[in-house]
Amino acid sequence: MEILLEIIMIPAVLAIIKIVVIVLLFALPLGTFLTLMERKWSAMIQDRVGPNRANIGNFTGHGIMHLAADGLKSIFKEDTMPKGADGFLYLIAPFFGLIAAVATFAIIPIAGPIGDFTFQVTDIEPGLLFIFAITSLSVYGAVLAGTSSNSKFALLGGTRASAQMISYEVFMGLALMGIFMVYGTTRVSGIVDGQNEYWFGSLIPMWGVFTQPLGFVLFFTALVAETKRAPFDAPEGESEIVAGYFLEYSGMRWSAFMLAEYVALVGVASLITTLFFGGYHVPWLHLWESAPQWLVTILQIIKFSVFTLFFCWFQIQLRWTVPKFRFDQTMALGWKKLLPLSLINLFVTAFVILAFA
Amino acid sequence: MELKVKQVQRVDGAKEALYLPAIFGGLRLTVSHFWRNLFGAKDVVTVSYPEEKRHVSERWRGRHRLTRLDNGFLSCVACYMCETVCPSECIHIEAGEHPDLSVEKYPVVFDIDELRCVFCGLCVEACPKDAIRMDTGVISMAYTSRHTFDFTRDLLRDSYDPKSHSNTKYEDNDLPSPKDQTEALPNSLGVPAT
Predict the structure, then answer these.
(1) CA closest to A43 among chain B residues
(2) Is A199 exposed, middle or buried (0-12, 13-18, 19+ CB in 10 A)?
């Protein structure tokens, strides 16, 4: 028993256990679940019924069996490759997006540390820079798929994805710069702890969304653009370029793209929660001083999950609300409006910090 | 008549350029729909077809049936009116002598090829004896073999029970199988079904 505990406490083993728990038990299942929920929720928004037919015997579970049906279908579908495609790149492209989406969870804390044990895979010093690195990597999946498919539509989609990534990456960084300045650290745990402070005694928590409201809007917009979802879904552009960069894919590789999109959606939601909504910190919990540690941890996990789920829902809701931007509008919005706005935000933040802190 | 022109005020300016007011306006609508439908699908108008069926009007021209007299005989006197008027030539009648001398003729064969039928209802209008009607309320016929769509006289007669008048009371699988159909054909005389 003690040997087992010692093995578990080896940092590498511990990290693997955390990865398994956070990624395989939280991010991937939630992403898979959202593929169905997007269909169900969009049906509710549009006064439809949504998928409800897949069944085993009489059990449909309000459409939950569609998850199994879709998975089985993808596995047994033929994995096609177009003539003249770049074989190697074509085959590995789907997993770039998926790996990048999953890697976001490396730095996200889902609950406060208990002693030395942290609920976070790794708490690296340049935490936010890691986010930048990973989110810009995620576009490689789209670009590689677009260039290797030997298809004009896919190439257009890949090009659009890369152009969009470049324009929105710029002010995403600038929007987060405000967070650096307010909390004075790039370490994610430091930022989360910084949001546990309060204004006016213990009235308003110093969440990122209150210290950086404009930064929140900008960062959220940039992340929605990075995940290539509506209103920034020009890279997929169903009405213009069929399905964009993953047009030629079928079967499980296509599913990998879909899964990457939804895992990225969960990643965006958890990033927003962590950086702008106090992370795992339950607001005003410090007023209850005699709270037992285990209850606090459970409450923190619940708070984190609820906020993450809420932002997953919000992104889906947003997709079914706003119309798509034309691609030139996407570019104009990014460079002409949001980039100057993020610079103004940075300037005002710096001024306020200089003047009042 | 004067042409009506509706002037739409084009919204422009800072509020529109911000996008956010418009986005939240849209979100208010979609979230309200989402929220109402989250508990009990209140706005959903979808009819889950095979399980529940839409109300079908009394005048709906559905699958045909041959009516019967009070004594159980077919009303049809094999006058060929419907076969003549049918624009898609899907009705095939062969007349025979009726055992009851007052009736004169009856259809030995009365086939309707429902695959050819365009459901125009002209046969119903042409019939002098009100012998053919399209009031069964069967709105869709979906079978797996072409053979099944050839509705013979006994099928047209027997698959409708005039005693219980209501729409959409047939299940498609209540129909006799093609095998029963062919067996029923040769020795049937239009006499009351036992």
Answers:
(1) B34
(2) exposed
* Contacting A residues, span 194-233, partner chain B, CB-CB under 8 Å: 217
What band does B84 get if pLDDT is binned at 50, 70 and 90?
very high
B86 is in an annotated binding site: yes
Residues A132, A169 contacting (CB under 8 angstroms): yes
Segment A236-286, tens digit of pLDDT: 777 778 877 888 888 888 888 888 888 888 888 888 888 888 878 888 777
Identify the three-state secondary structure at position A50: coil
Count of positions (residues) in chain B: 194
Residue B88 is which amino acid?
A: S
User: Is residue A58 less than 8 Å (CB to CB) from chain B?
Assistant: no
Question: Does residue A318 belong to the interface with chain B, where contact is any CB pair within 8 Å?
Answer: yes
Q: Do residue A45 and residue B38 have CB atoms under 8 angstroms apart?
A: no
Q: Do B34 and A317 touch (CB under 8 A)?
A: yes
Residues of B in contact with A52 (CB under 8 A): 48
Contact A248, A259 (CB under 8 A): no
Crossing angle (nearest 10°) for helices A293-319 and B20-38: 110
This complex has an ipTM of 0.75
Distance CA B72, CA B58 (A): 24
Q: Which residue has the tokens 């459901």?
A: B119
| pLDDT of B11 above 80 | no
Residue B148's contacts (CB-CB under 8 Å, 6 or more residues apart) are B178
- Show the beta-strand stretches assigned E in B30-170: 65-66, 91-97, 105-113, 132-133, 150-151
Scan for tokens 């990456």, then name that residue: A169
Annotated binding residue at B76?
yes
For residue B97, list its beta bridge partners. Answer: B105
User: What would the two tokens of residue A242 be?
Assistant: 């069929």
Q: In Å, how far from its chain's centre is CA B45?
A: 21
Cross-strand pairs, B40: none
Q: DSSP label at B74?
A: B
pTM: 0.77
> Under 8 Å CB-to-CB from B135, ≥6 apart: which residues?
B58, B60, B62, B65
Domain boundaries, chain B: 12-44, 56-193
In this complex, is the C-beta atom of A47 within 8 Å of any C-beta atom belonging to chain B?
A: yes
* A345 token code pair: 């935000």
CATH of B56-193, one of 3.40.50.150, 3.40.140.20, 3.30.70.3270, 2.160.10.10: 3.30.70.3270
Angstrom CA distances, A42 to A191, A255, A319, stand at 34, 20, 9
pLDDT tens-digit map of A180-235: 888 888 888 888 888 887 777 777 787 878 888 888 888 888 888 888 887 888 77
Nearest chain A residue (CA) to B39: A44
